[in-house]
Input
Amino acid sequence: MNRKVRRRKKRIKLMSWSLVLLVGVLAASFVVRGIGKDGKKDKQPLEEHPEEQIGEEASNEVKEPQPEPDVTVRIRATGDIMFHPSQLDGAYDYKTNTYNFEHSFKAIKSIIREADIAIANFEGTTAGNEVYAYQGYPLFNAPDEALDAIKNAGFDILSTANNHSLDTRKAGIIRTIEQIKARGMEPIGTFTSKPETRVLIKDVKGIRFAFMAYTEMVNGLETVLTPEDLDVMVNIIDEEKMKEDIIYAKDNNADVIIAYLHWGDEYSRIQAQRQEILADMLFRSGVDIILGSHPHVIQPTQTLDYDGKTKFIAYSMGNFLSNQRVETLVPYGMSEQVSKYTEDGIIIDIEIEKKGSTKEISIKNINYIPLWVYKGVKENGTAEHIVYPIMDYIESAELDEDSKARMSRSYADTMAQMNAE
Output
């Protein structure tokens, strides 16, 4: 074999070994990258990408459900909202022929608006002024602007079942309901026609509330409606109907049942026995909270235990806003000792709690915000009426010393009525 042939064979052999070496390197790199001989990606070993493997295992773990947080709903309730003639005169603007009652609520607005649900008794009607004039006692008919001020103050629910529900007859009931609803508030206790239910159900933060409202009487005006209309349009206290409403509330999964009752004896600071008897029946049937109005003075509150469950009652929350006071009632024969209490009102501040872990519902806290109604004279000679939260204004430069003294008396007398046994 000559020298040329041997060199050629040697070159071929070297090239073959180089080709084998190159194939080996390429194969090794495919394995490192996780690609097999078939060109598909292989699962990478744990030691090469431990963080990805741990992530995969973690995603397959069953996570423990986190307990739901506790929920608290704040209800703020108060008594009678009335508009007497001096209030109408004071709110009237002769230049525009309109009314503005906003000033009466200026000091209380922030407190009412803080509530999740704010409720009061609207004592009277808003029937317009085509048939009935705007007037106060004995046949209340307020301008629609009264409802504007009530809405702007932060109220959500108005009880319309009271002894003045029929002051402007059937048309007045209907229009009052319509005007309340038109402003985004909800009336309870009176109806434009036969309702599907007499109970208002509201879900607030996952807690279901049932509201019902009844009145003892309508000032002898029952006959202005037919018996059929009276039966469906005004909730007059009837134990069978009330029990039906409680059953309805339970069937609709109400967590808390609240009854707003217009009852008791006017100007009496102690509840009547018939109030206690009715309250006991309602509590035993399933009502949790009773809020009272009508006496125009504050009656005691009580926290009671029924089979281990806390119940609460405010027999009368007094006047929230009115013209009733010593100066207006003494001339009509009422003693100063009695009439002074008509200046007093209160906001009952109730916190309802729902436990996230157990879903248990309970009355968590009950607090009291005493109120006093101021009456003064404006520059034009008309009266102004302002609801003051006493503890926020007892040292205010806005009020004179006589007003502060009356506030102090009001506060002491009001708090003495709270939690009475």
